[in-house]
Amino acid sequence: DVPKVPDSRGDSDGPRRGSLCDRHCAAVNNAQGDLGELGCHLHRPRVPTAVSTPSCWQQHSEEVCESCVVKTTLTAENAVEANKLSNNYKFGFKKWKSHVTARPWEDRSEIVKELYSDLNVIRGSGGSTLTCGNVLYLLLFGWWLSLLYVLVAAVMFITVMGAPYGQLCWDLAGYFLWPFGKVIQKVEVRVPWDSPGVVLGCPMHTLMFPPLPRSPDPIRRVTSRSQRRARAAVWLCLGYPVLALAHGLVCVSAWLLIVLIPVAKLSARAAARVLLLPPERLLIRRLRMTEVPLEGEVILCCYRAANPYYYKYAVDGINIFAVNLLPLVLVTLVLGYVDSPNRLTGSALKFTLALLSIMPLSYYIGMAIASISAQSNFAVGAVVNATFGSITELTFYITALIKGSREGNRCYAEVVKSALTGTLVGCVLFVPGLCMVIGGIRHQEQRFNSRSAGVSSALLSLSVGGVFAPTLFSKVYGKLVCGECHNVTQNPLGRYLCHSCHFDLMDNNGTLYYSHVQPLVYTVSILLPAAYLIGLFFTLKTHTHIYDIHISDCHMPGHHHSAVVHWSRWRALLILLLSTLCMSACADLATEHISPILTNSTISQYFIGVTVLAMVPQLPEIVNGIQFALQNNLSLSIEIGNCIAVQVCMLQIPILVLFTIFYPTNFTLVFSDLHVYASMFSVVLMNYIFMDGKCDYFQGTVLVMVYFILLAVYFFTPSPSGC
Questions:
Q1: How remote is the C-alpha of 230 from its chain's centroid?
Q2: N or C: which end of the chain has fewer CB within 10 A?
Q3: Which of 166-170, 498-502, 656-660 has the lowest mean pLDDT?
Q4: Structural contact between residues 650 and 531, judged by C-beta atoms closer than 8 angstroms
Q5: What is the average pLDDT value for the chain, to the nearest integer?
Q6: What CA–CA distance (Å, rounded) separates 345 from 549?
Q7: C-alpha span between 343 and 321 (Å, rounded)
Q8: β-bridge pairing 549-551 and 282-286
Q9: What are the residue boundaries of the Sodium/calcium exchanger membrane region domain, all occurrences included (predicted)?
Q10: Does 606 fall in a domain?
């Protein structure tokens, strides 16, 4: 018991309340939320930073003290975001780090604001423009883009009619060679364009040669309207298409490199605005630190070509990596179904593309689930998470089993078992271990809610025991059959050396399997989902204090309380269905082209299953876990791995068993000895590490090292017999 806190008001029941609160604080570990912190609100409530104003906590201090339980206090900009944060702490719900609503602009850091700013702001002092990113732009794009402008300028000068555009291209050649610290402005005309023979003031000089000292508004005679139209037609036919195509290539290339997104914005704005304006309306000049900008709209002003923080960039709430990988899905589907005879590419490339396409689709499915759950009630969220939470893995497993059944190849069933085991071992060892290591670099010691982790660990131990019960039963009562045996001592009663031994369950017309093992498999497949439902009822209904979450309704001044969601419920549902459909197609392509890899590869099929097929679909979850760990919220990092592992045993495997009832396949719930030993050892080690409710990077290193040792064992293990 921790010491009692005396009541400053002198109440008779004050010491009793303080002692109760302290016992609650000692019972539950300090697990921090996304934007809040965990603390026991005693008679002097502690106000988290940027959570509430003094007037707000004074107003609610009595209510907090009356029910003084340890709560994880979270703050959110709106009710939808608060619901999403609360769902992260609910058992069985997908943990999602990204926002499902638009964050208020004033709440964002200056670094993030700069990512979304347009390249049309002139700074007082931009600093030196000689940076590594700017030099990289010069080497990748600047030199050939400038040379192309020079060539187009020569063509326009030859046409005579397009000479003004030739002068513009000559100026832009110097600009795009090194655009940093220079500005392109749109200046206003002084008289209407439709007046014949008018005089317009519009300065334009070359940046490749110093301008002559003259007035900022030189006088230039403008030709008639018909000549201007002819000049524009020549430009749109000969000059603009080539330059627009070049800028499009630069834009796409820079966008895919992510850190060079400012270059993509620069090229897009040049093609959409600069090249479509009359030359007389443009002013191109170099900025000086003490120079006062001229009047006119700033079209382009760039100081840096690269920004390493663009990994945080999002388009309509979608992370930039998921946006860039989306075309890969289209390429995979077109290449896979159009080139089915493998005339253009081989099976290895198609399998790799199909597997990589699963990553962005997993991201879209996860965000759709989080968006629907955050905007719906608890029942709808639970149904969506239970239905689509494991759709990525189940889609691949079912398509692989169907293909194996059609071909009569039992190797597909063994690959599915390896993938199931790899997901279990990876989510128990690698995911929390990696989060501990990365989070431990920033935080010396991290704490988590040991009670909530204990519930997941108990369910995981139960599920692992249930999944491998038929395997242990077959080892005890099955008949050991060996493919080849040699007498070592040349004595009939001596020792025999046997190879390719396995337990045969089909002896005596399969009496053991059909009469004992198969009923046991069906019994386990019924009990495991029932245990999962009991776990949901336990954590979400009867013992909610284990995951006690308090969403603060105190907001900083200026916060917007109205939710501007990225995806509405119907849009999220449509994206969820389309992503699931594309996921099924990619899984079909992956299983279609995995056969040559399994046959011709020298790597063990066990290793392929437990690494590539198991962990690639989990990459978005791993990224979420790392982000939570960096924010000192290791509870959610651990829960991500535990929830996936529990769903593998309690939902995915029973669904596969149910599927084999209606569609007979080679899948049986009997695993190899290596799968059994690796899974059980991983669960025991995880329970030991999570016992005290705190960890550091050393314990995470132990988990990661054990995971790599198991991978080495799988790598040197021979492929299953008959594959």
A1: 51
A2: N
A3: 498-502
A4: yes
A5: 77
A6: 52
A7: 30
A8: unpaired
A9: 349-467, 572-714
A10: yes
Type of residue found at 135: V
Question: What integer pLDDT is reported at residue 723 of this predicted model?
Answer: 64
Residues 6 or more apart whose CB falls under 8 angstroms from that of 697 comprise 436, 437, 439, 440, 441
Q: Which of 82-96, 277-291, 419-433 has the highest mean pLDDT?
A: 419-433
Amino acid at 660: T
Cβ within 8 Å of residue 709, ≥6 positions away: none
Query: How is residue 411 written in tokens?
Result: 């190797």
From 49, 363, 386, select the one nearest 57 (Cα to Cα): 49
Other beta carbons less than 10 A from residue 187's beta carbon? 20
Beta partners for 503? 480
Task: Report the sign of the C-alpha dihedral through residues 137, 143, 144, 149, in that order.
Answer: positive
* Encoded tokens for 623: 């990224």
State residue 211's pLDDT score: 39
Written as six digits, the tokens of 473 are: 């039963």
Report residue 248: phi and psi, to 5°: -65, -40
Q: Give percent of the chain above pLDDT 90.
A: 24
pLDDT class of 328 with cuts at 50, 70, 90: very high
Q: Are residues 485 and 354 in the same domain?
A: yes
Distance CA 38, CA 62 (A): 18
pLDDT beyond 70 at 668: yes
Question: In what helix (H) or strand (E) does residue 315 lie, and over which residues does it extend?
Answer: strand 314-315
Read off the pLDDT of residues 127-145 as tens digits, 9 standing for 90 and up: 678 889 999 999 999 999 9
pLDDT tier for residue 113 given thresholds of 50, 70 and 90: confident
CA atoms within 13 A on the CB side of 476: 8
Dump pLDDT digits (tens) for 393-451: 888 899 889 988 888 888 888 899 999 999 999 999 999 999 989 988 888 888 877 77
Residues 530 and 628 in one domain: yes
Closest CA to 422 of 118, 679, 700, 162: 679
| Domain around 180 | 93-118+128-186+226-315
* Residue 419's CATH number: 1.20.1420.30
Bridge-based pairing state of the strands 282-286 and 694-695: unpaired
Instruction: Choose one of 280, 297, 315: the last residue of a domain.
Output: 315
Rounded to 5°, the CA angle 540-545-551 comes to 85
Are both 307 and 399 inside the same structural domain? no
Gap between the Cα atoms of 100 and 82, Å rounded: 10
User: Is the separation of the CB atoms in 311 and 321 below 8 Å?
Assistant: yes
Cβ count within 10 A of residue 408: 7
- Residue 155 within a domain: yes
Q: Is the pLDDT of residue 384 over 70?
A: yes
Cα angle 480, 481, 487 (rounded to 5 degrees) comes to 105
What pTM did the predictor assign? 0.76
Mark whether 427 and 368 lie in a shared domain.
Answer: yes
Q: 280, 315, 350: which is the final residue of a domain?
A: 315
Percent of the chain predicted with pLDDT > 70: 75
Tell me: do 272 and 326 sit in the same domain: no
Q: What is the per-residue pLDDT for 502?
A: 62
Residue 546 lies in a domain: yes
How many structural domains does the chain have?
2
Answer yes or no: do 573 and 675 share one domain.
Answer: yes
CA dihedral 530, 532, 536, 538 (to 10 degrees): 70
Same domain, 373 and 236: no
Q: What's the Cα-to-Cα distance from 567 to each of 278, 368, 372, 563, 581, rounded to whole Å?
A: 40, 8, 9, 11, 19
Alpha-carbon gap, residue 17 to 22, rounded angstroms = 9
Collect all residues with Cβ–Cβ distance below 8 Å to 715 and sequence separation of at least 6.
Answer: 603, 604, 607
CA distance 430 to 641: 9
Cβ(47)–Cβ(57) under 8 Å?
A: yes
370 and 483 together in one domain: yes
